[in-house]
Amino acid sequence: MKGVEPFYAKEEKKEEEKRRKEVLKSIEELIQLGETREEKKLKEKLEHLKNIYEYLKNRGKEKIEELNLENIVDEDFRAKSDIFKDIYSEEILEQDKKKVKKIDGKIEQREIELFRKIRALKGEIVEISKTIFSDKLFNNKFVVVRTNKYDDYVNGIDEILIDKETGQPIAALDLITYEPDYEKESIEKSIERKKRKFFAKVLFGSFLKYSLYLDKNKKLRLGGFVDVPFLFIKFNFQDILNIIKADIENDDSKIKEIGKNLIDEILKFYEEEIFNLENEETISIKESAINNFLENFETLLPEIEGLKEKYKNILKQSILNIDMKDLYLFYIYFEVYNRIKNGEDVIKGFRLARLKFVYDTLKKLFESY
């Protein structure tokens, strides 16, 4: 009969509504559990996180189908490796897959501990949420795609932020998830570990081996090896839960509010730590930012000396066989660190213009909310 909704469609709607209510309940339970070290409560927490993650995986599947990305990303919204076969040789792709598999094995061993499982699952939820809800979170300005696992593990990049206007990756994102107070100590330790390369990446960019960009028709395309600007983001897990809750309740304004606050934090970092902004016509980099780079990078010099010995006989044409993490250290050491020590201004021209472009783009986004 024309205009009558089929029985199975009604059942699907009922099932979807039930699922949404279960996820909302899990979110409320997680918030109530808060800080805990009790094994029983940690197990409860893990089950609620699994429930939320499954919901997000289904939302992600819908998004992938909606954007016709089945051939570009996997079910976790990560860039696939095999699609880069026209850019990299089979030898390089297999070499990277073996490295990822090896790291995966180490992670699995580590995550036997309940607390670590929870931390890892929360990280997955944050990354996939930002990808699924990027239009609402960033006011339809960016496309967010999770990196291939190689770039995640080796280059320390969780996601690619692609500017819809230019089609190019505007930033590589490194995310840290935390819950206020009780994870503060472990987060500070994690930040301390990253600090040695932090200012190098912020000021001079980060390597991305499996990159993507948007073509003129706004379709994702493969980009291969690039050097991209870098953003480090601390994400309060409570905000992620609020984003998922707002999505279920169709409250887009709440998601935008969280996105605006996130962009505001990034802009404050640039204004307080990176740029001299007294005169907009002659923006420059703070001397303290360069000093922070030098101070932290110099802790890596013994490691770099060891790498020089390790790779002393490698041929120039085999450069992509070098571990990307090591290649990045060489790049910063020879092209940046040594030149600064020789009195050169290495952050003028292209590098300064790129940093300013990222800042200006984020500022426009902030003003558009």
Name a few traits of the molecule.
13 helices; two-stranded antiparallel sheet; globular; 4-stranded mixed β-sheet; alpha+beta; 8 strands; 369 residues
How would you characterize the overall build of this protein?
The protein is α+β, with helices and mostly antiparallel strands. The protein has helices spanning about 5-35, 40-65, 90-110, 115-130, 135, 150-155, 185-205, 235-250, 250-275, 285-295, 300-310, 325-340, 350-369, and strands at about 140-145, 160-165, 170-180, 205-215, 220-230, 230-235, 275, 285. It has a domain at about 80-275. The strands form three sheets. A four-stranded mixed beta sheet has the order 1-2-3-6. It has a two-stranded antiparallel ribbon with strand order 4-5. Strands 7-8 form a two-stranded antiparallel ribbon. Helix 1 crosses helix 2 (about 40-65) and helix 4 (about 115-130) crosses helix 8 (about 235-250).
Strand arrangement, major sheet: 1-2-3-6
Which segments are poorly predicted (pLDDT under 50) over 5 or more consecutive residues? Answer: none
User: Which outline best applies?
Assistant: globular
- C-alpha Rg, in Å? 22 Å
Q: What's the helix-strand series? A: HHHHHEHEEHEEEHHEEHHHH
What fraction, in percent, of the residue positions are helical? Answer: 55-70%
Number of strands: 8
Number of helical regions:
13
Strand content of the residues, in percent? 5-15%
What number is the mean pLDDT?
Answer: 87
